[in-house]
UniProtKB/TrEMBL annotation:
GO terms for molecular function: ATP binding; ATP-dependent protein folding chaperone. This is Heat shock protein 105 kDa. Transmembrane segments: none annotated. Its main location: cytoplasm. Belongs to the heat shock protein 70 family. It is found in: Cytoplasm. It comes from Cyanistes caeruleus. It holds the Pfam family HSP70. Residues 398-423, 705-726 have a biased composition (Polar residues). Interacts with HSPA8/HSC70. Interacts with HSPA1A (via NBD) and HSPA1B (via NBD).
Length: 726
């Protein structure tokens, strides 16, 4: 972008790959040569970025730079959504990938090619000038996109590239594919790894969807299509697929949205193992707790038997398969472990977890202690059956550890041995009997055939939480993390203040340009020649000040400058607005006066529409109309004596007030409804009906007793609507 070229040394980009790496990592040193900004080592050996912030040199860690980016994205999202944003979803890498292969690598091949050509043809070395190199990267990216849709020669032209020299070149798709032959060969390796992990054959794959900007390169499409033996699909937007997926995941996680149910099971891409020292000092125990592609989030509980504190070390089982030089995750010391009172080893349960973010941790540890009978009333205890045939899920060489599995998302209490869910990997070992609930039906069947067994002794136990000391590799300590959070908060506040300062400065600049244009346009008639010259001079002076000594002033200075300008500008603007509104309002007032005067005249002429109105009320209308007419005539006369560059004799607000006053007095009077007149009633409306009814019914029918249902009339009785029914 233009900003990146203009502020090349202070614009940070392409830093994501530096996470989790030391400054002296060969990869970092190689990438360092391609960057426009400076990388420096941090105190902890990590990667730092040196930039100028608030006119001072600062060094920020890669984590801090990432936080700044997320903060900016948060502000952008809040601005578009018009509501606060508190959570986000960040995309992660797939289960098979080449982290060092992407569109930027193809751009790099083009840049190297044209650097050599420019050096040979123009005797210029773009790599010696950061801005020139960045411009070349931008043009090469455009060239790459054009070659994806055209197989002919595509020109490259850059004006004033270096030393006011224009450079040009050309390349076609065939040459591009030759340059990138080594990159294209690397496409197949992740695909082979993926098929090996899933244990699928190419024939088992029904469809292949490709996303990402680099998939537009025809050679990339051809390699993937050739591997799977079928055409690839590009129905998804190549650039927005990740963002759309994140948006969908946000909707799934948010309680504010209701979406169609999706079953999403994440996976752990790298196997994780634990290493510990046994009580025999010359031996070590090791176990892979999470295999490759193990379901995540997920928790497991490991049971150790120890007499004192012990240490666990977590690491990636396959260091060569991890795209980082450091395979260690961290060391965890389980503290406050002590032997039982009888000198036996204590049972210690350690819960390890890969959370929903894919982060491994030793989350909790607890020691199981027997409880005396007199203590049972005061402490929370659990009952444990000591079964002779009890066997752990997995046995190890030192026989001091056993494992329990639990699906992530369950509560944090210790899970029952052998409980597995659909996501847990199958286990060939028989489950433990600890806390196992017996089958009631089978128990009842056995009771009738076998003599009652003696009750097994029960031991009351309690779980004592143990502190864990975590020493994490490349993860920020609490003190450093808190310091970074505090620093980020200060920078957010500083950005807010800087934005307010820039807004105040821009307001002055905008006022100068806008008012200067209007003074030679619509405002020209509303200012006298003397005031026009003085105000124009002040605007020109303010413009010069903005680009010289006023370039970097405090917010309050700009606020005061704007106030000084408005002291002269606001009266001019007011006269213009008054001249625009006053004729319309006077016309509206005149129409209303004519309307009420007409009604008063019709009243005097005994018009039936208004004859019902009281004469005293109508006299109020006539008086109000007369007074407002007089006021309007005086106002129009006074305004006619004023020129446009003078303040008006009557303001639009006064006309609005008079119009409101007129309506308040007159409208309730002239809109009075006529009184309702009742129509005359007919005398004895039922007399004739009763005679008619008597003749129709006859004497016998009157005296007969007919059974009737409640509320039901005879269907032939036409006058039932006038009868009272009980």
């Amino acid at each position: 972008s233009t900003v990146q070229i203009t502020h090349a040394h202070n614009t940070v980009s392409n830093f994501k790959r530096f996470h989790g790496r030391a400054f002296n990592d060969p990869f970092v040193q190689k990438e360092k040569e391609k960057l426009s900004y400076d990388l420096v080592p941090m105190k902890n050996g990590g990667v730092g970025v040196k930039v100028m912030y608030m006119d001072e040199e600062h060094i920020f860690s890669v984590e801090q730079i990432s936080a700044m980016l997320l903060t900016k994205l948060k502000e952008t999202a809040e601005s578009n959504l018009k509501k606060p944003v508190t959570d986000c979803v960040i995309s992660v890498l797939g289960t098979a990938f080449d982290p060092f292969l992407g569109g930027r690598n193809f751009d790099g091949k083009l840049v190297d090619y044209f650097c050599a050509e420019i050096k040979s043809k123009y005797k210029l070395d773009p790599k010696t000038k950061v801005r020139a190199l960045l411009r070349l990267y931008q043009e090469c990216e455009k060239l790459k996109k054009l070659m994806s849709s055209n197989s002919t020669d595509i020109p490259l032209n850059i004006e004033c590239f270096m030393n006011d020299t224009d450079v040009s070149g050309k390349l076609n798709r065939s040459q591009f594919e030759e340059l990138c032959a080594d990159l294209l060969q690397r496409i197949e390796m992740p695909l082979l790894s993926l098929m090996e992990q899933t244990q699928l054959k190419v024939e088992d794959v029904n469809a292949v969807e490709i996303v990402g900007g680099a998939t537009r390169i025809p050679a990339v499409k051809e390699r993937i299509a050739k591997f799977f033996g079928k055409d690839v699909s590009t129905t998804l937007n190549a650039d927005e697929a990740i963002a759309r997926g994140c948006a969908l995941q946000c909707a799934i996680l948010s309680p504010a949205f209701k979406v169609r149910e999706f079953s999403v099971t994440d996976a752990t891409p790298f196997p994780i193992s634990l290493l510990w020292n046994t009580e025999a000092e010359d031996t070590e125990g090791v176990h892979e707790v999470f295999s490759r592609n193990h379901a995540a989030p997920f928790s497991k509980v490991l049971t150790f038997y120890r007499k004192g504190p012990f240490e666990l070390e977590a690491f990636y089982s396959d260091p060569n398969g991890v795209p980082y030089p450091e395979s260690k995750i961290g060391r965890y010391v389980i503290q406050n472990v002590a032997a039982q009172k009888d000198g036996e080893k204590s049972k210690v349960k350690v819960k390890v977890r890969v959370n929903t973010h894919g982060i491994f941790s030793v989350s909790t540890a607890s020691m199981v202690e027997p409880v005396k009978s007199e203590e049972c009333e005061d402490v929370s205890v659990e009952t444990e059956v000591e079964a002779q045939d009890q066997r752990p899920i997995e046995n190890f060489s030192d026989k001091n550890i056993q494992q329990e599995n639990s699906e992530a998302g369950t509560q944090s209490q210790v899970q029952t041995d052998g409980q597995q869910t659909s996501q847990s990997p199958p286990s060939s070992e028989p489950p433990s009997e600890e806390n196992k609930i017996p089958d009631v039906k089978k128990t009842n069947e056995k009771k009738g055939d076998q003599p009652p067994e003696a009750k097994k002794p029960k031991i009351k136990v309690k779980n004592v939480e143990l502190p864990i000391e975590a020493n994490l590799v490349w993860q920020l300590g609490k003190d450093l993390l808190n310091m970074y959070i505090e620093t980020e908060g200060k920078m957010i506040m500083q950005d807010k203040l800087e934005k307010e300062r820039n807004d105040a400065k821009n307001a002055v600049e905008e006022y100068v340009y806008e008012f200067r244009d209007k003074l030679s346009g619509p405002y020209e008639k509303f200012v006298c020649e003397k005031d026009l010259q003085g105000f124009s001079a002040l605007l020109a002076e303010t413009e010069g000040w903005l680009y010289e000594e006023g370039e970097d002033e405090a917010k309050q200075v700009y606020v005061e400058k704007l106030e000084d300008l408005k002291k002269l500008g606001t009266p001019i603007e007011m006269r213009y607005q008054e001249a625009e509104e006053r004729p319309r309002l006077l016309q509206e007032l005149g129409h209303r006066l004519q309307y009420y005067a007409t009604i008063a005249g019709e009243f005097r002429n005994k018009d039936e529409k208004y004859i019902h109105i009281d004469e005293m009320e109508m006299m109020k209308v006539e008086k109000c109309v007369s007074e407002v007419v007089e006021w309007m005539n005086n106002a129009v006369s006074a305004q006619a004596k004023k020129s446009l560059d003078q303040d008006p004799a009557v303001h639009s607000s006064e006309i609005k007030a008079k119009l409101q006053e007129l309506n308040n007095v007159c409208e309730p009077v002239v809109t009075q409804p006529k009184p309702k007149v009742d129509s005359p009633k007919e005398e004895n409306p039922l007399s004739e009906q009763s005679d008619y009814k008597t003749e129709d019914m006859g004497e016998d029918d009157k005296n007969s007793e007919m059974p009737q249902q409640n509320g039901e009339c005879h269907p032939s009785d036409q006058n039932t609507i006038n009868m009272d029914l009980d």
